[in-house]
Amino acid sequence: MFYLSFHAKHRMIYRTLFVRYSTFYGTDRGLKKLKYNKLQEWVGNRLKNFEFVRIHGPTAEDVIKDVDLSNKTCLITGANSGIGLEVTRCLNAHDCKLLMACRNSYEASVVAKNVCEKKENIKLYELNLASLASVKKCSDMILKNEKKLDIVILNAATFGLPWTLTEDGLETTFQVNYLAQFFLIMTLEGILAPDARVVFTGAESHRNIKWPIEKMLSPTLEDISLPREQYTSIKAYNISKLCCLLAMHYLGYRWLNTNISVLTAHPGTFIKTRLSRNWWVYEMLYTAMLPFSKNVKQGASTVIYSAISPELAGLSAIYLKDCRRCNESSMARDTQLSFKLQDLTRDIIRDRVLGYDYSMVKPEVIQKDIGKDPVEETFASHYTG
């Protein structure tokens, strides 16, 4: 249920309007005094800038005010539109150094010049998530040019596509929304700051994926990169967001004995951005939902909160919506499934990127876990790379 609240001045306008409306229709004297066209003009003038303040939480600007990010560097994917652009604008306004990783670097540069105040704090990196070779090239450039990353926001996403394959032979939504961005963070792991934060952009719709036990015990490539006969755009999107949450839990274990945090932020449902542009049906649906959903500034708030809030210091592997901690689905927090997915993810990347591999658990984590009975006796302790 949605509620409407009014600023004090708007409540006054409303009461005055009600009185004049009643007077107009209630008495002859009012009828002579106030013609209909005059009433219409009066209403138009006073409600020209009328705003409905929906209870959808704060904006990104509200969350980030009073925060100094002058010594921070943030890498963000999908930074040239929608929620990614709003996050970029807010971080830039607070002196954060921004690395915008986008497919169209020219478009990103134009947008950045028009939206961001401190253009000198922005660097552009070309990144095509539909190509693992492009991801590797981008990460190599970042490793060459940057000393550390304090914040990484894996925000880029696609939705509503017909079934297509990338140049790597994978379903596009799966690769863009999950695999390529996970690959990116793994290649950049070495320059993450000691207290870095990594934020996945999630979606509540991950709850719609419910696998039978056999899939959870042994997921296959076809379960996550859907073949044509099993494909719907919504299902592919939901699976990709489920994979992001499972990856968050894996990385939470991987960085267990560090101060690096990994979180997933749900911006909101039916936020009107370019995400819905790929099919007119979704465009109409998202447009129809505009009065009832968060706007982009409100949607960016949870992402910003996850990336910079001191209240989250020391916390990792948590899911947030409306700037509060929230329980994800039972599948999404299944630790065993998260490691099974990592087995599969590592095989997919290894088969497509020549010479690249990564240990399932970092060697220093394995050494520090020795002797900790609660961990040592679980399946996770057996992942030694």
Strand content: 5-15%
Mean pLDDT: 80
Give the structural class: alpha/beta
Order of helices and strands: EHHHEHEHEHEHEHEHHHEHHEEHHH
Side by side, the strands of the main sheet go 5-4-3-6-7-8-9-10
> How many DSSP helices?
16
**Extended strand count:** 10
Helical content band? 40-55%
How would you characterize the largest beta sheet?
Answer: 8 strands, mixed
- What Rg do the Cα atoms give? 24 Å
First-last Cα distance: 49 Å
Shape: globular
pLDDT below 50 for ≥5 consecutive residues: which ranges? 1-34, 46-54, 365-385
Commentary on this structure:
The chain has 385 residues and is an alpha/beta fold. The chain has helices spanning 8-26, 28-33, 36-46, 60-64, 82-93, 105-115, 132-145, 172-187, 213-217, 221-224, 233-254, 280-288, 296-308, 335-352, 363-369, 373-376; strands spanning 4-5, 53-54, 73-77, 97-102, 122-126, 149-154, 192-201, 261-266, 318-321, 324-326. It contains 16 helices and 10 strands. It has an 8-stranded mixed sheet with strand order 5-4-3-6-7-8-9-10, sandwiched between helices. A two-stranded antiparallel ribbon has the order 1-2. The longest helix is centred in the middle third of the chain and has 22 residues, at 233-254. It starts with a strand and ends in a 9-residue tail after the last helix.
What is the element layout, followed by pairings?
Elements: E1 4-5, H1 8-26, H2 28-33, H3 36-46, E2 53-54, H4 60-64, E3 73-77, H5 82-93, E4 97-102, H6 105-115, E5 122-126, H7 132-145, E6 149-154, H8 172-187, E7 192-201, H9 213-217, H10 221-224, H11 233-254, E8 261-266, H12 280-288, H13 296-308, E9 318-321, E10 324-326, H14 335-352, H15 363-369, H16 373-376
Parallel strand pairs: 3-4, 3-6, 4-5, 6-7, 7-8, 8-9
Antiparallel strand pairs: 1-2, 9-10
Helix pairs in contact: 1-3, 5-13, 7-8, 8-11, 11-14
